[in-house]
């Protein structure tokens, strides 16, 4: 049977480009569903210390007791019994791409990861199903003491550092899905940047789900020691299936005195993935944490990156971008909690809804008593591309201190007939004109991305817009 | 094929109310025509209709350019055919720089001619934009600003003329380009238009006041009243209107003298 490559190409135009699937090459899977036995199996597969098994079991117990949250996006169709919680894709993680099994390597080649690594990254981690299959960092950084390992290798090779911080930023009891992740976590990165070391190029982790009906529960721990700097980028894609898959990560970040961390997400899951992620940073004195959170894909996303500003002079910034197309619900936003005086924060949210998609901004800004001289600004803008789409804003602000300066602005706009007419009068088609208004709308956020990602983001937006006008 | 824009018996309604009641006008390339008239006589309706604004409903007539009735074309198709409208109130497109916008517009034109076109190479585009900005004495920082976002009235009008210079239309309609400009800004904009004048460009200057015509000297002046062209003459007609107002034209129309 032959496939005409031309037709094949045309069919893919304007559709999700990352939806290809590979055969199931996994070497081990737990059975469907979750109970104590499954958790013990995962722990045994990883050869973990006893304290970690106990941590997992305690988390499982908490997860089972806690109800599914109903205050946010619709999770009523999420069937947790139908999911396989652990899939081991290969025997071991490689430090060179040659050690990665051929089928899996081809996938990452198609996604352009090894190419990007050579061009503009300081290190790359690649996760396939439940395990990291590749992890590598530039030698000169390793020599300076920078650690960039899979989370499992982090636990094995640096047990004391690991135990000191793991689970301290996001405790088991934080929420139902953080508890679930704590019970079945697998994969993710362990990053440590020593005092004063600045990692100039980004470290990137790439997450790929391949087979249907599985869950991915990556767990990442990033520690930037005093005065250190690092930028960590995560990207994710999956094939399109008719049944749902599940991704629930936990990201814990510790920003020490005067350190600076930026964490950028380009979430582009296929639209059958539930994406429920907990991300939080603890920021000490004079430290800076920046979340750049771009949510384009998934069926449902619930994700509110947080900054806990613990020390005087700490600064937290959240740039959140969500694109909700047909059948998608993006419930995104951010949280900043000011515990200390002279701290400052900024939340900027931009959402776009199209074709009946639903985007919500959900945010919390809290200032505790005694946190004097706090400055914070929250801006959320929504853009609706048609009358079927929906945008909601839930900005919670709790201030227990007098001496604060808080700003809050929200706006909802529609792509106006006058804007389209104006652009079309210069020769742009309706689709090009709409795309131009949308890319202008997210420009303040895209310009914060490193150039390569900004280009990628503009391309993704164009893909989302293609074929959107009848 | 004709090198003229021919408007025949054009009737246009907006929300059921007839505004243009049979407009006839021929604009050859190489000429500058002015349309003058009191407020509310349909001058801007004519401008928007020629460009294809969806709110204006054409009930009769045709507009022929290059052998086609352009009323059947979408606004972007009209633009790519060579028609340009300098807006009275250009809208802001936040986040899109003047340069990025113009490059996209140039590429849309190139692709219309050749679907395989890969777009204008960036160095070539930079050169083009720089040359046009120098010609129109526009500050280089303009290219990096977001289109019409926070622009003053004068800057908006200059941005319109810059777009016209880059897109090189064959028929340009200037809709009340003089409104809201002080005399210096008006002179700069008019100089820009004059710099673009030539045998490949026909210009339709729509204005309420004569003063812009001191700077852009028209070949033909039309007077529009109550949805029709009621008087046509040479540049002196504009001066006459400046001196005597529109009442004498109105009287002539009311007495049934044909225009």
Automatic annotation (TrEMBL), chain A:
It comes from the Bacteria. One of its GO terms (biological process) is iron-sulfur cluster assembly. It holds the Pfam family SufBD_N. SUPFAM superfamilies: Stabilizer of iron transporter SufD. InterPro entries: Fe-S_cluster_assembly_SufBD (IPR055346), SUF_FeS_clus_asmbl_SufB (IPR010231), SUF_FeS_clus_asmbl_SufBD_core (IPR000825), SUF_FeS_clus_asmbl_SufBD_sf (IPR037284), SufBD_N (IPR045595). Residues 137-204 form the SUF system FeS cluster assembly SufBD N-terminal domain. Residues 208-441 form the SUF system FeS cluster assembly SufBD core domain. Belongs to the iron-sulfur cluster assembly SufBD family. NCBIfam families: sufB. This is Fe-S cluster assembly protein SufB. It comes from Bellilinea caldifistulae.
UniProtKB/TrEMBL annotation, chain B:
Coiled coil: none annotated. The keyword Membrane does not apply. The keyword Ribonucleoprotein does not apply. Residues 5-251 form the ABC transporter domain. Pfam families: ABC_tran. SMART domains: AAA (SM00382). This is Cysteine desulfurase. The gene is sufC.
């Amino acid at each position: 049977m032959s496939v005409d490559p031309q037709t094949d190409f045309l069919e893919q135009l304007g559709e999700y480009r990352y939806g290809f699937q590979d055969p199931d090459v996994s070497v081990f899977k737990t059975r469907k569903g979750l109970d104590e036995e499954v958790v013990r199996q995962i722990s045994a597969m990883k050869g973990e210390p006893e304290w970690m098994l106990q941590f997992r079991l305690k988390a499982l117990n908490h997860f089972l007791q806690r109800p599914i949250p109903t205050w946010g996006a619709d999770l009523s169709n999420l069937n947790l019994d139908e999911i396989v919680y652990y899939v081991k894709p290969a025997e071991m993680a490689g430090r060179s791409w040659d050690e990665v099994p051929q089928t899996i390597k081809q996938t990452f080649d198609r996604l352009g990861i090894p190419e990007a690594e050579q061009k503009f990254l300081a290190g790359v981690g690649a996760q396939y199903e439940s395990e990291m299959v590749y992890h590598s960092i530039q030698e000169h950084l390793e020599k300076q003491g920078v650690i960039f390992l899979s989370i499992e290798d982090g636990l094995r090779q640096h047990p004391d550092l690991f135990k000191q911080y793991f689970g301290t930023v996001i405790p088991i009891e934080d929420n139902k899905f953080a508890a679930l992740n704590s019970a079945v976590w697998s994969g993710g990165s362990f990053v440590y940047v020593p005092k004063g070391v600045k990692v100039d190029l980004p470290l990137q982790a790439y997450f790929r789900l391949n087979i249907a009906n599985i869950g991915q529960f990556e767990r990442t721990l990033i520690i930037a020691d005093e005065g250190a700097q690092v930028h960590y980028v995560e990207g994710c894609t999956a094939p399109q299936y008719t049944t749902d898959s599940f991704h629930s990560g936990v990201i814990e970040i510790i920003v020490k005195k005067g350190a600076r961390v930026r964490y950028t997400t380009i979430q582009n899951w296929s639209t059958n993935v539930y994406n429920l992620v907990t991300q939080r940073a603890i920021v000490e004195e004079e430290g800076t944490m920046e979340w750049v959170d771009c949510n384009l894909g998934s069926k449902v996303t619930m994700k509110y990156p947080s900054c806990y500003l613990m020390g005087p002079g700490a600064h937290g910034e959240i740039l959140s971008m969500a694109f909700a197309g047909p059948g998608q619900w993006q419930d995104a936003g951010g949280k900043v909690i000011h515990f200390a005086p002279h701290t400052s924060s900024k939340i900027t949210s931009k959402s776009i809804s199209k074709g009946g998609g639903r985007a919500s901004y959900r945010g919390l800004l809290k200032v505790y008593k005694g946190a004097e001289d706090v400055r914070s600004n929250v801006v959320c803008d929504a853009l609706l591309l048609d009358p079927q789409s929906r945008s909601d804003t839930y900005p919670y602000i709790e201030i227990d201190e007098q001496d604060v300066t808080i700003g809050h602005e929200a706006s909802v706009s529609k792509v106006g007939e006058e804007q389209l007419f104006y652009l079309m009068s210069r020769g742009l088609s309706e689709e090009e004109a709409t795309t131009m208004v949308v890319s202008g709308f997210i420009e303040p956020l895209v310009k914060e991305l490193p150039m390569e990602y900004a280009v990628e983001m503009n391309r993704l937006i164009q893909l989302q817009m293609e074929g959107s006008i009848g | 094929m004709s090198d003229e824009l021919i408007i025949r018996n054009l009737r246009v309604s907006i929300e059921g109310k007839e505004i243009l009641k049979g407009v006839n006008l021929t604009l050859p390339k190489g000429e500058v025509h002015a349309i003058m008239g009191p407020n509310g006589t349909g001058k801007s309706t004519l401008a928007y209709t020629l460009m294809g604004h969806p709110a204006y409903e054409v009930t009769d007539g045709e507009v022929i350019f290059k052998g086609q009735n352009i009323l059947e074309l979408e606004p972007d198709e009209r633009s790519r055919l060579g028609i340009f409208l300098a807006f009275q109130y250009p809208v802001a497109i936040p986040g899109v720089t003047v340069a990025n916008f113009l490059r996209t517009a140039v590429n849309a034109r190139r692709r219309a001619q050749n679907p395989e076109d890969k777009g204008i190479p960036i160095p070539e585009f930079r050169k083009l934009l720089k040359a046009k900005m120098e010609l129109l004495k526009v500050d280089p920082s303009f290219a990096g600003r977001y289109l019409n976002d926070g622009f003053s009235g004068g800057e908006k009008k200059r941005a319109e003329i810059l777009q016209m210079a880059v897109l090189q239309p064959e028929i340009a309609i200037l809709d009340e380009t003089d409104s809201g400009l002080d005399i210096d800004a008006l002179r700069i904009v008019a100089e820009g238009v004059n710099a673009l004048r030539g045998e490949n460009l026909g210009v339709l200057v729509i204005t309420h006041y004569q003063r812009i015509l001191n700077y852009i000297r028209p070949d033909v002046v039309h007077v529009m009243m109550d949805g029709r062209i009621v008087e046509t003459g040479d540049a002196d007609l504009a001066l006459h209107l400046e001196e005597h107002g529109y009442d004498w034209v109105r009287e002539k129309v009311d007495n049934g003298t044909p225009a």
